[in-house]
What does this fold into?
Amino acid sequence: MNWQSLKNSALCQPGEHRLSRRRMLGTVAAGAAGLGFSRFLDPAIAEEVRANDKQVILIWLDGGMSQLESWDPKPNTQFGGPFRAIPTSVPGIEVCELLKHTAKQMHHLAVLRSVCTQDNSHSAGVARINRGDPKDRGVVYPFLGSAVAKLLGPTSSGMPPYIWIKPYSGGFKSSDAGFLGAKYGALALGDGKPPENLLLNESISVTDNELRNELRAKFNQRYAVGRRKEWTEANSYVYDLAHTLMSREELFDESTLSDRDRERYGTHELGRHLLLARKMAETGVRFVKVNSYHWDSHGDNFNACDSLIPQFDKPFAALIEDLVERGLMEKVLVIVMSEFGRTPRINSHVGRDHWPEAWSIAMGGAGIKKGIVSGKTNAEGTFVDGPEHDIGHLFHTWFRALGVPPEQMEYDNHGQPLPVANEMCGPVEELLA
It folds into this structure.
């Protein structure tokens, strides 16, 4: 088989460019409105931004989840592997049998099976997918979480706009923010734990703490004189986020979990982190990212999937079920993705290698059509059959689903207008409700 002959041509077509470039309504203004500085905006635009209560939960399966063992099974084919396809709650839509719990929630979800990206290395792919594949304009673009924090600001809850739940270390991670500035970085909760020293020392009274914070604010104001505000604002901002979290310590108290939640989400790492993501969304965090590692199955792919995918499947299904039950599914956009998929061809180590040519992304919730599959791959899953969709298409789709007006789909980087994602792409209309 000549695989290259099966490939379609360009990933994004110039005709798909549907963005309005209005510099006066750039996203610096949008971010300012979200942070309470509505005097910088037209009152009507400011009110529209404040009224937008959409949120995002991004589940990042780092290393590359296999689409053939999840969203796009090809059983009984040359590259299909040993697992069966099973029916879902939507007639005619099938997923891999390893997603038996998620299959029951398919009527709330959408899957795009025509994702075709360019980078097959982790170092390039992770950054490109998280940034929406912008053209090189000499600046480092923000990751999706920082972009949403900038475009929409925090919710009215006062909770941090961008929280990253991840294994290993935590802390404030400014690198995600790119040229937006450190303020729009992520507050990372290492192993889902609260920041160190979150609780007020029992020797310090509430009154003393308030006085300390007043003094800190005055020192910060003095320090900020003559210095770049991007960094001085970020420093103050981290303290403000910590102060907010101090009043919500119950979010991290696992002793309060019900037996039902323990059973449905599980006590393993990803299950605990997805449950915490639900709680963070319930309390008003604008963007929650949950990281899971070790999905890079170059060897023993099928046993790896047999172990890993059920650890994702059950708590993910519980998350969707809970968001629906709590009336949050219409306002919370849920996304499941990696930096690429896995090769159809099985290597000599019974593994699947990196494959950006044809893979799948699942989503649901705010602004997304329910119970559909968009796009398809050919019979053996080697390439996309029909129009291909790059990550730029997905960024425009998600921003549209979140209600970001077209006139705000542009950053103002010190007078330099920058599109929020690849401007040669447009949204995947079939995915939008």
Notes: The domain at 3-431 is CATH 3.40.720 (Alkaline Phosphatase, subunit A). DSSP finds eleven helices and 15 strands in the chain.
